[in-house]
Amino acid sequence: MTPVFNFTQLIEQISLLNREFSNQVSRAINVSLTLRNWYIGGYLHKYELKGSDRATYGDQLMQKLAKSLKQSGLGRISPRELRRYRQFYLTYPQIGESAGYVLKNDVSLTLPEKRESVTPISGKELINNLSFTHICELLSIEDGLKRAFYEVEAIQGNWSVRELRRQIHSLYYERSALSLNKEKLAQLANRDIEQKSLGLTIRDPYVFEFLGLTPQEVMSESHLEQKLLEQLEDFLLELGNGFCFEARQQRILIGEAYYFIDLVFYHRVLKCHVLIELKLAEFNHENIGQLNTYVSWYKQNMMRSDDNPPIGILLCTHKDQALVKYALAGMDDNLFISKYQLELPSKEEMERFIVERVNRDQ
Fold this sequence. Notes:
Layout: H1 7-50, H2 54-57, H3 61-71, H4 79-91, H5 94-99, H6 123-129, H7 132-139, H8 144-157, H9 161-169, H10 172-178, H11 182-189, H12 205-210, H13 215-218, H14 223-239, E1 243-254, E2 257-267, E3 272-279, H15 285-301, E4 311-318, E5 321-327, H16 334-343, H17 347-361
Parallel strand pairs: 3-4
Antiparallel strand pairs: 1-2, 2-3, 4-5
């Protein structure tokens, strides 16, 4: 007797098929990106050892190479990233043993003699289960045994990058070494873990630059937020108060992690940057803490000698409520604050704008 195949089962099967093939695509993208970066590191290492003209570049090799590669359209090739790729190649030689990939006109690579990684995990298993962003977190661990511990735990627990970072910072390895009941500790450590989702890997900065995408295309939290940002950009420019648009989803590097600022303007009257963050939620202290972090980073890294300190504006929405929070970044010049209050949109204007747009678009 032929099993019953009804409409509900048809939906389930097609949905299952779509998920499976989407996951395969995500895995393929991650593997390709990881292999690319490993080979870049290998070529760098070989050139530094045997390049016929390497003396011409000397200490400026990474800077000059990054500049030339950027002109060729490559992403993620700053001097810092190039050094990371070289470290990746030297730390994980077993990836070459399982890659089996040869370019046309390939300059053959010799695997590093010193095997720094003590992991029992093969190169194939590593690149099939961990994204390159996972690997970046692992590369920050100098101790080989400690790094191997987190490799195994991340793969077995299907940890997200954020979860891997959290476990490292919580000293899970050190606590495990001291614990008399390691199994119980593992259960507690993994009780509320955040697992990685292949469907979200395209939001990974390494992946979207590898695919030639821009932050604006992949980093918005929702369609509504994207529309609001577009309208907010137009709203501020139409005020004519000196706003000069600089960027949307501006990527900045703080420590070892990348963050994205929703909108960045330069105000030519106030002579300062204005950073705007939009949150489709009620105000909380994490939001203002995040914005103040961005403002502090801009003050230290982007502020010129003739600039005033940057300003942050936080817009939080919740249905028909809106809160506008200005972050002054420690400004204590009363004259400047008065001028700032005159030149920027009033809180009432900003609040009215966000309420009208949210109500209209929901």
